[in-house]
Amino acid sequence: MPESPMMIGRVTRCSTRGFVGGMQVSENELPVFGSFCQAEAQGGRSHVVGLVYDISITDDQFARQIAALEDVPQEQIADGQINRQVPVEFSALAVGFRDDEAFHQSLPPQPPLTLASIFSMVPKDSVDFTSQLHFLQTILNAPQLPVDELLATTLRLSAQERPEGEREQFLLQAGREVARLLAQDLTRLENILRGLRSKE
User: Fold this and answer.
1) For a Cys staple, 122 with which of 3, 10, 36, 82, CB 3.0–4.6 Å?
2) Minimal CA–CA distance to 125: which of 36, 21, 52, 14?
3) Of the residues 100, 122, 144, the one at which a domain ends
């Protein structure tokens, strides 16, 4: 039975370069740094593919008051982390879009609108999207992001979505593409390749 994408939030801010999503979820449902998601756009006719690069817990007055106590009872920690709905915000870089025909690795024609639904990307879609590696250039060109760590983490996660026998080949192919793109910046290239190997 094919997996269905899980709704993980709604758009709060957006542009053609990316979007920010807000949600209230438990720790186990938080999106993962370097993972893909999709936000509805153009009235549902397309979905913007986003790459999660930042996750933050928004200000919680109750948690700030409890944190000031010298000894916090375990029940109150559980209430703040598990029982309470934790306000979470995550930011995603637009790395492509999907229409009725296929995935495209370019900036979307229109951004999602405020309060558009954001869904996790199921493994099959992740594999389909990363079968081409043009999106790597978009990541490398992103200003003021932890680009090297983001790129290495994304490629490791994308490899894990594949059958075990295809993972090494994918990472080799991705490593060659990164080497081509960063042929003039060997220091950055070494940092990213080290990141690809760090959690093998």
Assistant:
1) 3
2) 36
3) 122
